[in-house]
Design goal:
mainly alpha
Length: about 210
């Protein structure tokens, strides 16, 4: 899997890029997340409208639900990336994260759990199923079981941890890294389908986990 990850990352940025340059790329991504969401939503909006009647082809209520659900997910992604950038900029092996950084551990944990729980959302499940629509029913079930098992393990690992030990931050970083790797697998390692945010989260957590090991 390591070779697949390296290949995927080099399609988006050099493996030997220095940390500051990498963080500039991440900050640029964060800055534009809202704009990318707005443009993407406007494209979806046009498909909901009849040119002649200018009426929604789905209900206003459903339309608003799509928008605010997407907006909330973008906000969570943005916050997670901002937290990880802050960790990467301020954390060294000698530091205890919960002593040095003025960041709410509980909030960060809840954001991570939010991203993990997206695996169970109906529209996300449908999007995942679409990736495997050509597989047999038995193989589809195996994929679904694998995703549900991953979700169960993530939640079990993180549910009761508190900011009493630095290692619990590492558990959150490791969960995010493994969640990104799961999305790489779901998207069959296709760089055209994998979100840049998942790649950046994977790389940032790699940086933080390696700092702890140094």
């Amino acid at each position: 899997m390591e070779e697949l990850v390296d290949k995927l990352i080099t399609q988006h940025l050099s493996l030997d890029v220095d940390l500051n340059s990498f963080l500039i790329k991440v900050n640029h991504c964060i800055k534009n997340l809202k704009e990318e969401m707005r443009i993407g939503f406007e494209e979806r909006e046009s498909s909901f409208l009849s040119i002649e009647s200018r009426q929604y082809s789905i209900s206003d209520e459903s339309f608003e639900k799509i928008f605010f659900r997407t907006e909330k997910r973008i906000d969570v992604l943005k916050k997670v990336l901002l937290y990880l950038v802050s960790f990467a900029q301020n954390y060294s092996q000698e530091d205890e994260l919960y002593d040095k950084l003025h960041i709410s551990f509980i909030e960060f944990k809840n954001l991570v759990l939010f991203l993990i729980d997206l695996l169970l959302e109906e529209d996300v499940q449908k999007a995942i199923a679409k990736e495997y629509e050509k597989l047999s029913s038995e193989n589809k079930k195996q994929i679904k079981d694998m995703i549900l098992q991953n979700h169960k393990e993530f939640v079990k690992l993180l549910k009761n941890i508190e900011a009493s030990k630095d290692e619990n931050y590492m558990k959150l970083f490791n969960a995010l890294k493994n969640l990104s790797a799961l999305w790489f697998k779901i998207k069959s390692w296709n760089s055209l389908k994998i979100r840049k945010t998942d790649i950046f989260i994977y790389q940032l957590t790699e940086v933080l986990l390696s700092k702890k090991e140094e």
